[in-house]
Amino acid sequence: MADFLRIMEKIPKVKYVDFKTIEYKETQLAFRPESSDVFENQSEKIVCRIIDEGYGVASASKIDTQSAKMVSDLALKQARLAEREVNLLPVNPEVGEVEYREKKEFDVEEANEILASLRNELKVKLGALYVRSELVLSHYHIDSTLVTSEGTDIRESSSLTDLTIYLIIRDILQGFASRILGGKGGLEVLEGRDWDYILNELVSRAKDMLKAKLLSPLERGKSFKVILDSETAGAFAHEVAHMLEADTFQGKFFHGLDVYEDFVLEDNPTIPGAYGSFTWDDEGVRGTRKTLIKKGEIGLLHTRLTAKDDEKPGNAHGITHIPRPTVSNVYIRPSDWSLKEMFEDTKNGIYVKGLVKAEVDTLDGKFELVPEIAYLIRDKKLDEPIKQLKVVDNIRSAIQRVDAIGKLATLRPNVEKGFCISEGAPHIRISGIRCF
Q1: pLDDT tens digits for range 417-435
Q2: Which domain holds residue 425?
Q3: How many domains does the chain fold into?
Q4: 234-269: buried (b, 16+ CB within 10 Å) or exposed (e) per residue?
Q5: Are residues 303 and 252 in the same domain?
Q6: Is residue 67 a part of any domain in this protein?
Q7: What DSSP string describes 45-102?
Q8: For residue range 286-329, what is the model confidence (pLDDT) as tens digits?
């Protein structure tokens, strides 16, 4: 770092300079019917970012003094080529070091035993219905440093572990189910979980797919009261948050928004052990909890480039390109409804579980969610399962029609443009949303 600081001091006068280094190690185990694989990858990167009039970025794949000098020269040239002037919101410089230690070190042999045990449990629970499963266990260690011309000098080191389970079964028809879980840490991320419940839920969902039907043509396109499980509600929270990224925000979707009294959408990078947690973002700004939506209040996700005056940065993601505002751990805050109360109050509607896809068009606000499976709710109880359902509506309209929120939220790990995040929510109900 001393060498980097000396190089920084020799750069002709500019608005801002920083050097960021990333050391990355990945181990991935995959159990498939035809193979069992282990993959290891290690890499390092040094990045220089300079603001002259515009923003310039250059990077190299080796961390040393020669590479630092090279990327600083390139970043300065790129900054002078930019067409538009940019400015950073002033922040207090940060100094410090944070290391998230693994409580249980990731060990390939022990990880193999965990995957083999889970696969065997699925086979026992399914018997002759079992066709195949895929279990992919990934472990990452990331060590990053940042020094800036403003005096920031920080280092953050952390490990993450996640597990994805895919399950396929067959009788006359075929059924499938999947689950993703993870967090910060080593193998302790997988300990203490109710694996019997998790696997039983996967098996039950896959079995229900065997008898699932398409939504009736007479009902397709109609509006329903829809209850979203934690996975699909978390995906909904994530897509709403996309609309609140400051660099693409369109006020027309949120002006005069009238939301349910208990509806609160938050982003919080300080949740202990969560997959998207961090101490400092990619601009070296300390992460804080932010309220994005609550009754009478709208907040945006900001970087130092988008924030003005009293707006809070701290959601910058971007290393080899200009940082963008992105979620960390985004979730809908729990309220006080039980799932049983939602069913009883809904009487007739649709319950969706598991996630295939969720997306929103930030230009027109069209929202689409595809669950793994859905169920008709008739007379307050789950009825026949539905496959290939799509929930489609305008995001503004859907936000305003959330009218029930459950008691317990869970976080689902995800990756957003190469960055680890998580999304979560309790069960929620949206009234009058179209299903196809």
Answers
A1: 889 999 999 999 999 999 9
A2: 223-435
A3: 2
A4: bbbbbbbbbbbbbeebeeebbeeeebbebbbbbbbb
A5: yes
A6: yes
A7: EEEEEEESSSEEEEEESS-SHHHHHHHHHHHHHHHHH-SS---PPP----EEEEE---
A8: 999 999 999 999 999 999 999 998 899 999 999 999 999 999 99
